[in-house]
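Re: that backbone. Tokens:
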């Protein structure tokens, strides 16, 4: 016998009500938006922290950059001093002494010396440039100049008021005529360099200094300003 009655199982509705269905559809979208908002806030916080670290590290990085440029300036200046020594020795070997045996321009050093029909380089072209000054040109230090007198006094203060000896025998003979006698500094501290335009004039020079007048990070013979650093083959 066939059972025609309609059991409840024929009319079971498994769907949800309208409000519940809408909530089930909206919740995942809201959750995604919230996650995106949290991610954006975290990203902004991270960027703020990185910016603070960068601002704190900037002065240290700038000082490190200045220190490296000063090291390069000292290295190049020492090269120029050695080239002047070689140039003067070359001139003495040909009977030229005194101021006439000194170079008159940087080209005299970069062009090299003629030895047995060959040019011997005594100074790199890159060393002929001052890495501290904007122009890149060294200031020439003339014999018996005020800058040289101040440098001698500063070196003596650094050496406990003892004048360093010039070891090169040929330069040692010329030293009394080129390097002024400076009285010891009673305070024992380096003296500031005197302002002078001798570096812009023409003529023989026995050393170079930077044209940059700012204070230095490094000390050179106890001198803390760039234009007071004189690189010369004398007093060493």
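Recovered sequence:
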């Amino acid at each position: 016998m066939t059972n025609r009655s309609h059991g409840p199982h024929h009319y079971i509705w498994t769907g949800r009500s309208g409000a519940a269905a809408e909530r089930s559809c909206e919740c995942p979208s809201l959750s995604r938006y919230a996650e995106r908002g949290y991610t954006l806030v975290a990203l902004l916080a991270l960027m703020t922290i990185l910016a603070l670290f960068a601002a704190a590290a900037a002065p240290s990085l700038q000082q490190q950059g200045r220190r490296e440029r000063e090291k390069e300036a000292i290295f190049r200046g020492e090269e120029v001093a050695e080239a002047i020594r070689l140039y003067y020795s070359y001139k003495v070997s040909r009977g030229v002494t005194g101021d006439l045996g000194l170079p008159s321009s940087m080209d005299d050093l970069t062009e090299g010396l003629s030895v047995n029909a060959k040019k011997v380089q005594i100074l790199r072209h890159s060393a002929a440039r001052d890495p501290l000054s904007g122009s890149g040109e060294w200031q020439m230090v003339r014999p018996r100049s005020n800058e040289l007198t101040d440098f001698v006094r500063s070196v003596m203060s650094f050496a406990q008021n003892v004048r360093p000896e010039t070891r090169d025998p040929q330069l040692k003979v010329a030293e009394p005529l080129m390097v002024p006698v400076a009285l010891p500094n009673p305070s024992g501290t380096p003296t500031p360099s005197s302002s002078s335009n001798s570096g812009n004039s023409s003529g023989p020079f026995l050393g170079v200094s930077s044209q940059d007048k700012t204070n230095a990070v490094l000390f050179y013979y106890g001198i803390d300003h760039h234009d007071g650093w004189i690189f010369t083959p004398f007093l060493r």
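The chain has four helices and seven strands. The mean pLDDT is 83.
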